[in-house]
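Q: Please design a sequence for this.
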């Protein structure tokens, strides 16, 4: 029984760390290992100094044993959590991509409750929210996601129900948690539909209900927004390159980039010209 509790504790720690960004778990593993390694080294010196004092020696020896064991166990836990976090990140992106590119819409209907929760989390991430997933492993009950957008916090309840309507009890349950935590608002997301009572209760309570058709629309809209944003960035880069290559002349001497300058002395004082950026090493000039 004791061994099972220890195993369960390790599993829970890995699950908690897997909710962090993968790089944070990796950083924690390195920091904990370095800290405990140095601590073990200091304890070694203390044990050598107190070898004749039984009480102090035994206490130090106990701490030494725990630290020596922990310097390998804790980093290993953080490392496994980081790997799990990275795998989840890749899976979330894969789920999102599969759903938005599915012609039949079967991907959304056939996924498990856990995959549905990951998909919803990825949707809110792409819409600008910071998402914290629930560390619980149950398929129902409670809050599944916690969102943050600036100073505002929102709670999300996910219901992957295909054959049932989401009742008012689910919405009322979320509203109770929202009131107790004092958050800004909440979302109930389902692959199915909501009852009329649920819709009526959510009105004027800052709870947004997202049913299956709305969810599909949001997924497609978010995917198109991200694709458009990437296209605009590429277009801007291409335009900048075009302007640099076509509108700006090249130096007739070295072929380098030229900049617009104004003559300050001589008979051409006040007139503009193109001068080589390599000046004074290169004195190439082109009239404007």
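A: Design:
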């Amino acid at each position: 029984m004791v061994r099972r509790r220890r195993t369960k504790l390790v599993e829970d720690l890995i699950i908690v760390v897997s909710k962090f960004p993968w790089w944070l778990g990796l950083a924690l593993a390195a920091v904990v290992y370095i800290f405990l390694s140095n601590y073990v080294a200091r304890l070694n010196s203390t044990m050598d100094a107190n070898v004749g004092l039984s009480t102090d020696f035994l206490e130090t020896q106990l701490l030494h044993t725990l630290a020596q064991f922990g310097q390998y166990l804790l980093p290993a836990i953080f490392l496994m959590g980081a790997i799990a976090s990275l795998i989840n990140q890749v899976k979330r992106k894969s789920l999102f991509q599969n759903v938005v590119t599915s012609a039949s819409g079967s991907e959304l209907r056939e996924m498990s409750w856990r995959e549905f929760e990951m998909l919803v989390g990825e949707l809110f991430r792409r819409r600008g929210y910071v998402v914290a997933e629930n560390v619980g492993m149950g398929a129902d009950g409670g809050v599944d996601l916690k969102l943050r957008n600036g100073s505002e916090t929102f709670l999300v309840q996910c219901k992957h129900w295909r054959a049932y309507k989401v009742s008012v009890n689910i919405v009322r349950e979320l509203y109770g948690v929202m009131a107790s935590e004092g958050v800004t608002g909440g979302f109930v997301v389902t692959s199915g539909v909501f009852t009329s009572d649920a819709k009526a209760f959510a009105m004027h309570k800052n709870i947004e209900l997202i049913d299956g058709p709305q969810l599909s629309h949001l997924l497609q809209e978010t995917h198109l927004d991200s694709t458009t944003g990437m296209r605009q960035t590429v277009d801007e880069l291409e335009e900048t390159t075009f302007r640099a290559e076509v509108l700006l002349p090249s130096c007739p001497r070295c072929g380098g980039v030229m900049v617009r300058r104004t003559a300050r002395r001589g008979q051409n004082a006040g007139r503009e010209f193109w001068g080589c950026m390599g000046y004074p090493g290169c004195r190439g000039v082109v009239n404007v």
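Q: Thanks. Anything notable?
A: The helical segments are 2-18, 22-49, 54-100, 106-110, 113-126, 168-181, 196-202, 212-247. The two ends are 86 Å apart (CA to CA).
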